[in-house]
Amino acid sequence: MVVRKDKKKRTWIIDLSLGENLLSGKRKRIVRKGFHSKKEAQKAEKKLYQIFLSDEPNYDHIRIQELFDHLMREDENNQRKPSYIRTQKYNYNRHLKPYFQGSLIVQLKYEHIFEFREYLCTKGLSNNTVNKIMILLKRILDVGIRKGYMTDNPCTLLKKLPTENKRMNFWTLEEFHEFRQLFTEEEKNYLIFFTLAFFTGMRSGELLGLTWEDINFFRREIYVHKNLTKVDGKFILNTPKTTAGKRIIIINRKLVEDLKAWKETQYTWLSKEMSLTKEAQEKIQVVQKDHLLLHKDNVRKKYDAIFRRPTELKKIRIHDFRHSHVALLINNGEDPYMIKERIGHASIQTIYDLYGHLYPSKQLDTADRLDQFY
Q: pTM to 2 decimals?
């Protein structure tokens, strides 16, 4: 009963009880005495409700969608890259929302988080993918901490699943030359894309963001400082993921000659479709063939089409062209620090961790040299 009569003193009492506060575990209760009439007590009761709700808001109703929406606004305000935000939205809608949309955030415990991770593992996802989803969940619940909805984040108690570096595929120089023979003259721009990938180690987005003004033929330099992505049908130029990603790559003379010849061919092709001056061409995408920008989907579809042609080549991922470049450098005895600078890794340890196993013949050479000491 909210309003009741004190029979001994012949006055009225307000006794407000709103159950248990899930954040503190304490009972929500307010008691006021000494009202001379029931009407006076009821009037005071309404005021107390207003004060109680404003001073001690009830967060028991908060669900994951509200926290995720707030996190996305934070990421946008912090100018996180659109491609990153798109990935976060995909993982949320694909994995987190269907599982947690009916859950009250303040009731989540370690056991619930652990069960969710086990559920992800049963879906056949890799440990690396599961870890990324759990990082997103932790970021979402951290919003709840910052806004005062929760006192702790149950994700912090969960350790990451162990991950293994996948063995990388790569092509030797001979295999790449065999690949080059599969292209027609009309596919010259795609051949340039893959040739640059193999002989520079640039990422796909970096190659697609490359314009002619980024190439100095005299100094044989490529200035890598942007990458092109397509998000929701819009092309976006981003800066590299890390500071080390912004770099200068020195290219070999034969590649310079190929690029010069392609630039002339490109100018001839584009001039048929659009008004183009030599000055304007400097801002054109290097691998562009017509008035439309080339993007990753174009490259992937062409790559798949190439492998539908007769060939005995093993198919590697497009990203493995980057690994192939590193393998080529390692096989040529290049210094690991130079390799790090060339491909834009922040740490030389990454070279040892990711690429130390490439070209097993290097280990064989080492083992053979040990014969003199045996």
A: 0.68
Question: Catalytic pick from 226, 247, 289, 322?
Answer: 322
345 is catalytic: yes
Residues whose CB falls within 8 Å of the CB of residue 107, separated by 6 or more in sequence, listed in order: 22
| pLDDT band with cut points at 50, 70 and 90 for residue 13 | confident
CA nearest neighbour of 144 among 97, 94, 101, 104: 104
- Choice among 95, 203, 247, 289 that is catalytic: 203
On the question of pLDDT at 166 being above 90, the answer is: no
Annotation says 357 is catalytic: no
Amino acid of residue 294: L
295 tagged catalytic: no
Residue 313, judged by CB atoms within 10 A of its CB (0-12, 13-18, 19+), counts as middle
| Rounded Cα distance, 306 and 283, in Å | 29
Considering the candidates 219, 319, 337, 352, report the single residue annotated as catalytic.
319
Give CA separation, 295 vs 6, 7, 365, in Å. 79, 82, 42
Residue 227 phi/psi, 5-degree rounding, is -140, 150
Per the annotation, the verdict on 203 as an active-site residue is yes
**Of residues 182, 201, 202, the one with CA closest to residue 190:** 182
The residue to which tokens 């029931």 are assigned = 38
Under 8 Å between Cβ of 236 and 214: no
Told to judge if 355 belongs to the known catalytic residues of this protein, a careful annotator would answer yes
User: Tell me: the pLDDT tens digits for 266-295?
Assistant: 999 998 888 888 898 999 999 999 888 999
Could you say which of 28, 97, 241, 295 is catalytic? 241
Domains, the chain, in order of start with CATH, read 3-55 (no CATH), 64-157 (1.10.150.130), 173-364 (1.10.443.10)
